[in-house]
Write a structure and sequence with these properties.
Number of helices: 4
Mean pLDDT: 82
Low-confidence stretches: none
Number of strands: 2
Order of helices and strands: HHHHEE
Helix content: 55-70%
Structural class: mainly alpha
Shape: elongated
Distance between the termini: 86 Å
Largest sheet: 2 strands, antiparallel
Length: 140
């Protein structure tokens, strides 16, 4: 074994250990944090970083072309699916009232979900010719 192989093997082992430790911290955060949004954060960010570090460590240990391609695909799909799933969980928790809205610093969804209802007789109908809204009293 050459010195370069020993260095990459050691670096790979350190990355695997570090990634596993970060994933463990994410699990502890999921168990200890009080609300859905905090748990969602703990489930996504450390888990994604931890998995990417583990994949980098395994890539340093394996060094095969097909193995590296498989690990790259795993990392890509983790980066695409993890945050999206956490976003959907947080959004459904918001919509079902599982979070305390008073504790939010910014509430961007509140304006979208609580649109004011138009008063009777003032609702806008789309004009077929222009696509612009017009009042019902304007006639055909």
């Amino acid at each position: 074994m050459t010195v370069w192989v020993q260095v990459t093997d050691t670096a790979g082992a350190v990355l695997v250990f570090l990634g596993a430790a970060i994933c463990l911290l994410g699990v502890v955060g999921m168990l200890k944090l009080p609300d859905v949004l905090s748990r969602s954060h703990a489930a996504t960010k450390p888990q994604t970083l931890g998995l990417l570090l583990v994949l980098a460590g395994v890539a340093l240990r394996l060094r095969g072309g097909m193995d590296l391609a498989t690990l790259a695909l795993i990392g890509f799909f983790q980066l695409m699916t993890g945050p999206v799933a956490a976003h959907l969980v947080a959004r459904s928790a918001y919509r079902t009232g599982q979070i305390e809205r008073g504790e939010l610093l910014f509430d961007d969804l509140d304006a979208q979900l609580t649109e004011p209802e138009p008063e009777r007789g003032t609702e806008q109908r789309p004009d077929p010719g222009t696509g612009q809204g017009r009042s019902p009293e304007a006639g055909p």
